[in-house]
Amino acid sequence: MTKQRALIYSIVTTSQEHLSAEQIYFLARQQMPGIALATVYNNLNRLSRLGLIARIALSGQPDRFDKNPAPHEHALCDCCGRLDDIADGSFFQVLQAHTQLELTGYELTLHHLCSHCRKG
């Protein structure tokens, strides 16, 4: 694992948020000023292909990256864009047990207004 890839992996796995590539790039530049945006994208692609992190594709927004590569559900605030884990993947297990499909994964994102946005 290269120094750049290790840094990017560390940023994703220590974050309490689901960061975009641009956010990861900003954080990586603080520790490694010479890192290129293309390097961040290439390494995020590789880490997600290897199953070490998960890529979350969101309609109309940049992809986000999750330290937990196992199937699980997310909630997306339609106002501020905050993305949170909301379950442990049990829905995937239920689907697999009750269908005859050979499931390899799934993505489930529920849309809502977070408590902060509801107050505003």
CATH 2nd-level architecture of the largest domain: Orthogonal Bundle
CATH topology of the largest domain: Arc Repressor Mutant, subunit A
What is the number of beta strands?
6
Integer average pLDDT? 92
Uncertain spans, ≥5 residues at pLDDT below 50?
Answer: none
Describe it.
With 120 residues, the chain is an alpha+beta fold. It has 2 domains: 3-66, Arc Repressor Mutant, subunit A (Orthogonal Bundle), CATH 1.10.10; 73-119, Ferric-uptake regulator, C-terminal dimerisarion domain (Dna Ligase, domain 1, 2-Layer Sandwich), CATH 3.30.1490.190. It contains 5 helices and 6 strands, in the order H-E-H-H-E-E-E-E-H-E-H. The chain has helices at 3-14, 21-31, 37-49, 90-98, 115-119; strands spanning 19-20, 54-56, 64-66, 73-77, 83-85, 108-112. It has a 3-stranded antiparallel β-sheet with strand order 1-3-2. A 3-stranded mixed β-sheet has the order 5-4-6, with no helix packed on it. A hairpin with a 7-residue loop joins strand 2 and strand 3. Helix 1 (3-14) packs across helix 2 (21-31), helix 1 packs across helix 3 (37-49) and helix 2 crosses helix 3 (37-49). The radius of gyration is 16 Å and the shape is flat. The model has no long low-confidence stretch (mean pLDDT 92).
